[in-house]
Amino acid sequence: MSTAKATKKSAFSCEPCRRRKVKCGGEQPICQRCATRNDECIYKLSPTLSYTQRLEERIKELEDQIANLIKSPPSVAGSSHSSPPVSGVQDLSSQATRHVADEHGIGRSFGNLKIDGKGSITYHGATSFFNLPSDRTGPGSSDLPFLDTSSSDTDLQRRERLIHNAWHQRAMENLNKIPEPFQYLLNVHWCWIQPLFNFIYRPAFTRDMQSMGPYYSHTLLNAVISHSIRWGRSDPSTRRLLDDSYQSGLVFGKHARSMLFEELNNGVCTIPTIQTLLLLSAQECSQGNTTQAWTYSGIAFRLLDHLGICVDSQRFPGSVPLSDEELEIRRRIYWGCYFWDKLICLYLGRSPSLKHTNISPSHIMYDDSAENDLWVPFGIPQTDPTWKYPPTTAHSATCFMSMCRLAVIFNEILVHMYDPLSQNTDAEIQECLNSQKPLLQQWWDQLPTHLKVDPISLPNLAPPSHIVTLKYVYPFALSTYETMRL
């Protein structure tokens, strides 16, 4: 799994190339060989199972939307566009209401998501040279309305589909045999890293690992394994395997970086590329390599913009239609990047890169199945062989969403009180002090009880590590606020 170079075969070959038994580039709609020979290029090979499943899911989603439209009367213009919270997860629209007038103004400059020449989703604003003049100046283009995607029925159905798929994929994980030390180190990642940062959507990653689907890459796997080694070496058998066959685990980091730079050199820009960069940034940060950590995160945030993940495209007509899973993955990686941006800026004393605006992805996690996962400190050696840490509810979904809401407050404090690139005036600092203090208190008051750790009456059993981290991030936010106030 740590091979430095992995080639992926084309899923389709056109009929003329198949008859001649020559390699087909698979370009759409006409491959390069047929274009050169001026032949009719026809693809007749049956599509893959995963492609067929995505089409079936899309058809089902469209049928549900049509059924809902038939049942309910058309909504009046100016209706609310904010989605209701799912499973107690609160939407940030409670903090910033989206006004219709603002939406029309934003619609004038929004360019929608498009498919580029390589078949990838990309985003270019209204001023981009990649937009045709007709795209920018077409009739009524400046007054495109926001799409209303707030149907509670649609949200419920989307949540049910995602959770059902998540549990199905979790069951499939138990059937898939992954050799050691890879399985052990993957379990380390799911225990210690995933609940805090949520960089990877587990159901899609584990499924596509078996089929080389779009949400898995060898580059990403090497980054996951490399980041997990610091915990994995506590297990004697895993440490022995790493020392004997994988240069004490160093080979995974080397392969992740070399394969990453090859992808970037070839113009490959995918969600696994962003996830790889984020994991490498977090790993370098934990090792004190601030230059590398800052650089990797910066590239990740640029690619986030390039793929249009920074915008909630589904609220605009004309954008690329995305499946439930694609929307969930893009929303999660946006908030994972947003949280990491504030964390690394706090650590290094720098200005944040990512902003949360009216067109940013909503603060919703439809698949909250990980909330009820059982958590144990995987890989930690037991000093007392007669006692084991009893499995406890992970609460990873509410913990991550609460961390992201706190990151929004962090952003305001960093920008208006600690921005090293601009001289914050006394009036600006005072205004920020007055506005963020009640928001910090509101965040704490709304924090679920199972996420609160009272230092006066500590529980007998230490909670999961991501909950402990949340407990320390909040006092740090308060101290950052109080330092400037004094």
UniProtKB/TrEMBL annotation:
The keyword DNA-binding applies. One of its GO terms (biological process) is DNA-templated transcription. GO terms for molecular function: DNA binding; DNA-binding transcription factor activity, RNA polymerase II-specific; zinc ion binding. The keyword DNA-binding applies. Keywords: DNA-binding, Metal-binding, Nucleus, Transcription, Transcription regulation, Zinc. Residues 13-43 form the Zn(2)-C6 fungal-type domain. GO terms for cellular component: nucleus. It comes from the Eukaryota. Its main location: nucleus. This is Transcription factor. It comes from Metarhizium rileyi (strain RCEF 4871). The lineage of its organism: Eukaryota, Fungi, Dikarya, Ascomycota, Pezizomycotina.
